[in-house]
Write a structure and sequence with these properties.
alpha/beta, Nucleotidyltransferase, domain 5, 5-stranded mixed beta sheet, globular
């Protein structure tokens, strides 16, 4: 099984794909889709849509796990822009007929680090140990890998019941 984790963002959408053939997953690919703030929002959303579809066609994931994001009342414009990104991601998932789950950041932190208040560095450090990799340069990519791992652990724990 291949799980593609996505950390949505307009400036940078992180992605991380893991293969889960056995009890121990391994990293296939990770990175981020970076858009330019100089471009019109329509161009940026189209870029995310295009690059995500290319990634899906390359990886053929069985499941896409996306961070269930929230917007603070203090930043309504950011929430609206992020809603556009989510719409594009949902469209890509639907067009490619892939199963999708949403995972909260608190679940990711609890699942991987053991407490919901973990910071990004703790999450990154944990996924490096779990996957036996030396580095992930982007926090967006490491967050996406963490989302994919959490989806794997959620599915594994439900199968064992």
């Amino acid at each position: 099984m291949i799980i593609l984790g996505i950390d949505p963002g307009l400036a940078s959408t992180g992605f991380g794909a893991i293969r889960c053939d056995k009890a121990i997953p391994f990293l296939l690919k990770c990175g981020y889709i970076k858009t330019s703030s100089k471009e019109h929002i329509s161009n940026r959303l189209f870029q995310i849509h295009s690059e995500l579809n290319q990634l899906i066609h390359f990886l053929h994931p069985d499941l896409i796990a996306i961070e269930n994001v929230f917007s603070l009342v203090r930043y309504p414009k950011a929430g609206i822009l992020l809603g556009g990104v989510l719409g594009i991601i949902y469209l890509s998932v639907f067009q490619n007929n892939i199963s999708m789950i949403e995972i909260t950041s608190k679940e990711v932190k609890n699942s991987l680090v053991g407490h919901g208040g973990a910071d990004k560095q703790q999450v990154r450090s944990t996924i490096k140990k779990l996957l036996k990799i030396t580095d992930i340069k982007s926090f967006h990519a490491s967050d996406a890998v963490a989302i994919a791992l959490t989806a794997f652990y959620r599915k594994t724990s439900r199968r064992e019941r």
